[in-house]
Amino acid sequence: RRVHGENIKAGKQMGQEERKELKVPSSGDAESRKPSRYRVAGWTLLRILAVITLTVLNKKVLTQNNFKCPVIMTTTHFFCQFVFSSLYVWHNPSIVMPCSWRDHVKLSLFSSTFTGNVMLGIITYQFISISLAQTIRAITPGTTALLFFLVEGQTLSKISVVTLLPVVFGAGLATYGDLGNFDLVGIATCLFGCVVSSLSALAARRSLKTGVHPLELLRRVTFHGVPQLLLFAWAFGEFDTIRASPPSTTMWCVLVFGGVLGFILNASNFFGAKELSPVTVSVVGNLICVILIIVSIILFNTPVSFLNGIGIVITMVGSGVYGVVRALEEKEKPKTQ
Q1: What are phi and psi of 93, to 5 degrees?
Q2: Can you tell me the distance from the alpha carbon of 26 to that of 18, in angstroms, rounded to the nearest whole number?
Q3: CA 175, CA 182: separation in Å to the nearest integer?
């Protein structure tokens, strides 16, 4: 009995020592894993600056410099992003994602929506002004909600539907009459871009949920995207256009600079999405739209009537309110389940 009792005490002491070794990390360790305000602010600021600079640069290249090959321009941007992301992965091989043939098929489909969204955005600027395009793009939350309902069965609450109505009304008011160089083809392209953007958001959400590193995801997407874009460039006859009038060295440098901006934009977007709350993402998205509209009106002297201006304000405010409402509803779901 005495030996048995000593064994029990020894077992208890060993268990206590194991529990001490497996204790929960201290609050200091937990705090270190929280997203840094400075890091989040840095990613957000980089995204805003990259979006504004790249959008204005693409608009000037396609319109003022009369560059007739938007797909070639997008291909150059994607190739630069593939090179930069590959260099990062080469220095950090532990983040490499093993891919089966099914994963390659999924990445190829995701890349199709990703490249389509970028290419449609660039093509849109050939037909309509940046301010009009950004106003129409503000209805993307509505198309995203509809897509999530069709694919994942997520339904909208009544308050979400009500907050979407001002967005649709404001977008219609903003496009009424002449807002810059109004063009029906540009409007249709921009609307289709909203749908493709929603598809890309859904695919990116599913991909990032798997825990893949943002730059590894960017490397894979651009790896599949470059051949797709080259095929489109051949189909649209842009190779013949390049042969007929080769771009200058300065133009190629501008295109490469656009690729650097595209890498900064997508990297900051992916990294920021992992640390920012949905409310902040919505606020940042609408802030970018507002800044782009103001910058385009100033730089490109876009004429804006009183009704167009009211429509822009209604659309921006409505889309912001909708984003906040949806984020609060997503936050309340775990409590109600």
Answers
A1: -65, -15
A2: 17
A3: 8
